[in-house]
Amino acid sequence: MAETDSPPKSQYFNLTYPLPYVAHVEINRPEKLNAFIEPMWLALPPLFSYLSNSPSVRSIIISGAGTRAFTAGLDIAAASTSGPLAQHPPPNAPSPSPITSDLNANASSLYSQPTGTPYTSQKPPPPPPSSPPDPARLARSLFTHITTFQNCVSSLEKCTKPIITVMHGYCYGLGVDLSLCADVRICSPDTRFAVKEIDIGLAADIGTLSRLGKSAASASWVKD
């Protein structure tokens, strides 16, 4: 079967063919330890869908560019400035100041105007301050965001070709998620693994919690 489609292009992934029928996907953000931002995980489904259906690919190798990391996981700095985690304040954030004082100030200025001053000369009261979204809308927004994130990572697991992850250096968070979606995992002696979402108030809900117990030698160790 002849190949008709060209591979999707992404500045964050290098696609090469080191051997016949072998595709090499290199995570390409070494200046940030290959940490993932949203455009990176959104690029995973089209890339692995293409490789899954390509007749010239029979196996896939995934590695990270640079000498320091396979991937440091999610780019926390970027996630804290954009996206759902940045748009919504925490539940215990202080509520906006009441507008009673502003309304009273406008009322006082109205009645203190000289006699005969037309009402149209008064400035309108300021609009009420914006309030944080209610819990239901916040939960819905986060649900949509997390589900999309999970589906992007799961595109590796759904790929019909065997995937080998070759890890080195830091393999944190999302790096563990990606490796657990692969069929074979190979790591260098300097590889360091960590699942540290709990330290920043998050759950490892992109795939680690459901997959690690099936891949590790000891399920009780995973639970601990």
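(ticket continues) Second input and output from the same batch:
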Amino acid sequence: MTSRKKIQAITKSAKHHSCSVLIKTGKPPGVMIAQGSEDAVKQWVETVKRLRYKDYRLLRLEAVTAGQLSKHPGSITEFGSMRDLSAYLEECEVWEWWAEHMGFSNGGR
């Protein structure tokens, strides 16, 4: 995820739909994680789909009961590396959920 124009569209949509969004930018893989009401997240995902990312894959669209992203609705936070994103997810107590659904093994950071 390197296109500032697409990142601006993701940011605008996050604010419009009151979703908290984490994105890992720079060299692949690009990662996006959103939190909000079910309808808001679905609408945000539709915006992302319309951006036509080359290897876009929606891995999960589900409610997560463990932890929270600790961000205000409508906010977006960018991370430049998977290590930084993983550290933040661990702080928010959602790393295990994320790692499982991304196909990482236990301790595979």
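Agent notes: DSSP finds four helices and three strands in the chain. Residues 4-17 form the longest helix (14 residues). Closing as not reproducible unless the customer responds.
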